[in-house]
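Protocol step 4 of 5: obtain the predicted structure for the target chain.
Materials: sequence only (see below). No template structures provided, no constraints applied. The aim of this step is simply to have a reference model before the mutagenesis design in step 5. Sequence pasted as it appears in the construct record:
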Amino acid sequence: TDGSQLTLVKIAAWSVLTASADRTARIWSADSGACLRTFVGHGDIINSAIFTPDSTLVVTASRDKTAKIWCVRSGNCLHTLSGHRKSLYVAEVSSDGTLVITTSAD
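Step 4 output (structure tokens):
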């Protein structure tokens, strides 16, 4: 409703995870459409958001040159991953949930 552009949508059995140009990622109920959680803390557009295989964490990748690991239950940022010199495009999580890989413009 605020005119923000979605940059990525991921669908899980119970929810939809979105990444947005408004610098947030959100989890939405697949049944009701209600926003269940908003992740706030990136300094620029979020290009990618993904659940870990057990759906307890979300990993986001942003134009602010960082990836963040978030707790689904609390909404808190647990870790900020930095090191790229340019915008991040995508974050992915290994099938066992122990590794995060990011792609960047650098």
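Step 4 remarks: DSSP finds no helices and ten strands in the chain. The CA atoms of residues 31 and 50 lie 19 Å apart.
Proceed to step 5.
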